[in-house]
Amino acid sequence: MPTVLIIDDNAAVAIALDVLFSLHDIGALRASSPEEGLDILAREPVDLVIQDMNFTLDTTSGEEGVELFREIRKRHPDLPVILLTAWTHLDAAVELIKAGAADYLSKPWNDERLLMTVTNLIELGQANRALSQRLQRERRAKRELEQNFDLRGLVWQDPATERVLNLACQVARADVPVLITGPNGTGKERIAEIIQANSQVAGGPFVVLNCGALPSELIEAELFGADAGAYTGASKAREGKFEAADGGTLFLDEIGNLPLAGQMKLLRVLETGRFERLGSNRERQVKVRVISATNADLGAMIRAGTFREDLFYRLNVIELRLPPLAARPGDILPLAISFLRGKTLHPSAEAALLAHAWPGNVRELKNVMARASLLAQGDVIKAPDLGLPVTVAQTLDAEPDRDAIVQALARAGGVVAQASNELGLSRQALYRRMERLGIARPT
Q: Residue 108, preceding bond cis, omega within 30 degrees?
């Protein structure tokens, strides 16, 4: 059951509020002075405070309430506080709202409105605490990963990336092939490097072959090597990637582009560790950990007859699915900041980055930040400097207009906390905009 602390020297007020809350399954603690209220806060878990503004007989200045509020804010910065007084001082109310007060209500209060405000604030507080706890767990898990494994300086923050990293580090020590799937530009090679760095062959070579960057007639020579004269232009013997990776890891990117003849030979190497160079009859033996990656639908390729099913199952002992950047939004700003060249991001740029779909994934983000760093005037990068679609940059930097605020307040029944949450603003920011636009504070 949520608990509200009522700090008011008027026993009748405290009892009335206690009864009101008890009828709606909200517990109440009562204090008749600021000192007693602060003492209770030090000992008891409380979800919200309702405090009077005057405690000395015949005092109406509100100074005692201001002092109490500031002390509560100092000791419990995240605790919502509702100010309640029979003496309304608008200037004081505005200042305290700016300082973080949740709301400012006059006596006598409206039960329905007070209950709605209290309920919304409690729910918001519970949601914030749950979010804070989740973020703490995520930060702890991130620290443990960074302390226990070599992540090759990878920049990340999103839980989706954490899940991939956890699995990558878990399987790194096992001597089994790994298939990394995901769209182009998501960082599959970085995951392969992390697997290598935490494997039993971490001290061995890490060799990369992009199967999609070579003509099909040259891929086999790149993989297995070739003797002199094995093909036109082969004037001398050459070492293949498997030989170069002996005792380490071979990363085969875009494995779906490997021709069928090469697939058959690759399957044999995976099963036996033996192969022959092109143009040679001498069998060679290697010990290589193979990690492959693709953005292709290998299942569809198997059905079409362009990829061997037996090779797929041999490569796919462990599959790591790396989501597109848009599906791990927590990574966007940390990555963007890591790509900056001595400059900082304006909030409008941060909002534009978060709203963009990133079809080119991390590779696109890196290019956008490199261009913005070079072209931006000054040390702060703003939304237009990113060169993203104009509609994104323009709409994200816009403030809600008068109609949007009025409608949000109407939907929230006049509860500012609820309206500010809907508009994506802090309560203080909403109050400032209401004041600037001449919107009356709900009563």
A: yes
Question: Which CATH topology does 326-396 take?
Answer: Helicase, Ruva Protein; domain 3 (1.10.8)
Q: Which CATH architecture has domain 3-128?
A: 3-Layer(aba) Sandwich (3.40)
Burial of 143 (0-12, 13-18, 19+ CB in 10 A): exposed
* Total-model pTM: 0.70
* CA distances to 129, 143, 162, 187 from 136, in Å: 10, 10, 14, 26
In the CATH hierarchy, which fold is given to the domain comprising 153-323?
Rossmann fold (3.40.50)
- What does each of the 443 residues of the chain score in pLDDT, given as a tens digit? 899 999 999 999 999 999 999 999 999 999 999 999 999 999 999 999 999 888 887 777 778 888 999 999 999 988 999 988 766 555 666 677 777 787 777 788 889 889 988 998 888 888 777 877 888 888 898 999 999 999 999 999 999 999 999 999 999 999 899 999 999 999 999 999 999 999 999 999 999 999 988 887 788 888 988 888 667 666 688 889 999 999 999 999 999 999 998 899 899 999 999 998 888 888 999 999 999 999 999 999 999 999 999 999 999 999 999 999 999 999 999 999 999 978 999 988 988 998 899 999 999 999 999 999 999 988 999 999 999 986 443 444 456 777 778 777 766 767 777 777 677 677 777 877 887 776 767 65
